[in-house]
Write a structure and sequence with these properties.
alpha/beta, Rossmann fold, 7-stranded mixed sheet, two-stranded antiparallel ribbon, 9 helices, 9 strands, SAM-dependent_MTases_sf, transferase, Methyltransferase, methyltransferase activity
Length: 271
Amino acid sequence: MGSLSHYVISGGADGIHRMRLIAPLIAADTAALLDRVGLHNGLECLDIGCGGGDVSLEIARRVGPEGHVTGADIDESKLTMARTDAHLQGLDNITFTTMDIRTMREASCYDVVYARFLLTHLENPSKAIANLYQSLRPGGSIILEDIDFKGNITYPDCPAFERYQTLYCDCVKHRGGDPFIGPKLPSLLRKNRFSNIRMTAVQALGMDGDIKLISAITMKNIADTLLHDGLASAREINEIITELYAFADNPDTIAGMPRVIQAWGYRPINE
């Protein structure tokens, strides 16, 4: 299994709770992206960095019984949850396995590869995309979703949120990642020989409900990283979390997730 040391957000039960909160809030945007690319019955697909498998399950429903999905991650606790969900939903065209995008050696195995919120945590995302290129069959498609943390919105301005945003970006960069990778996805695809590249941007915001809790919960989930890396004190972290929950509880505020860039392209059929 690959190391989780580069990943700034808690894994295990805390990470699963956060993922379960986020998944339904962005499901419609991801579904629209899959519609644009045009998944159909019979495709062999890879969801790399699948986490709890929410998108893996969606892809499995789209490719049907003649298709197959491999959901891959380096966090076994999340894979266990994903296997349980697949069983409960009666999906037997899906397999969950341990795989690290940084070291994978798949060769021309898939018609579609997909990754969401994964490249932002990697020190060398271009190399990871090169690995995905090699894993695709000629003519196959790559589908990416990742964040641009510059694209955060609150109303009204919230000092605790601004500090949270700074700390999140600092700890991602300190671990070698890129919190602003979203707009770079098209050029990274072009650099790695993909063709017919397209992109769009989406953002989940709200006036009430779970969407307003994402910042506070993410702050809780990066607390250990911030403390370990010496980027913030426990007192400051707790104060920010308290203020973010209070901001979310105010019916006159707006909050949500950072802007997400969706990009897709194709391995040329003649390669």
